Amino acid sequence: MLPPLKPIAMKERVSLVFIERGQIDVKDGAFVVIDETGIRTHIPVGSVACIMLEPGTRVSHHAAALAARAGTLLVWVGEAGVRLYAAGQPGGARSDRLLYQAKLALDDSARLKVVRKMYEIRFGEAPPERRSVEQLRGIEGARVRKLYQLLAKQAGVEWKGRNYDHTQWDNSDTANRCISSATACLYGISEAAILAAGYAPAIGFIHTGKPLSFVYDIADLFKFDDIIPQAFKIAAKNYSNPEREVRLMCRDVFRQSKILKKIIPTIEDVLAAGDLDVPKASEESIAPAIPNPESIGDVGHRS
User: Fold this and answer.
1) What is the pTM of this model?
2) Options 3.40.50.1970, 3.40.50.1260, 3.30.9.10, 3.100.10.20; which CATH number does 10-91+291-301 get?
3) Whole-angstrom Cα distance, residue 202 to residue 183?
4) For 44-91, how does the pLDDT look when each residue is reduced to its tens digit (9 = 90+)?
């Protein structure tokens, strides 16, 4: 049996790599993508938070095992990263954190406190008093709809509302496709951070009943900081492939904003608002043992 790797802390990693139409394998101990002509592209798997696998990719057992040992999340997504089909799970999850998260979600009072904290972080102000989770969800939805309208107006984009069907992707307008591509990127790194911190993507507080409910909760806290405004700006331009432009934008924004250094502390801050006993930090499970990979840029593979 191979010894476990000592992974780089999630907050120190670069964010995303998108791969399409390539065979992913391990050659000479390195994680590589091999295109149709046999050219190899090396991926620094231990320095990446999340690898998004688009249609046309094949992954060997050896590569999947190496990614798991390195604590790197593999996510199988649809065209342009707009639908998540499946995801691996990097090491580091702890049962005490899963139980803590579940206890918060099942306690009505604690859950409301967590939701109120999420509202405060998202909008920069305390939510109205004496409101239920359902009422706060409704208030949040109304504010988000207005925010979409404002950003569309600022970017000069015609906006008919957030409405798209992932089964008929090409029938969506450009603005909705750009927003969906941007949020897919954000969901990928949010899920990677949640798993690395030892929590469950499915146990949400505002969103519930879906495999990625907590991912949606956490991603929403960062959605309007940069990527959605930038997605509207891209939608306003006549790009031949706007979804690709959005992915490149997300890569740059995530790196410049060092978002991975913010997500896990934000998760801890949000859950601490529930006022239940907090497990000790699991930093040892994701502690850095390799020099900071700040100089390593996000890469992608295109055939």
Assistant:
1) 0.73
2) 3.100.10.20
3) 17
4) 888 887 888 888 899 999 999 999 888 888 888 766 555 667 777 665
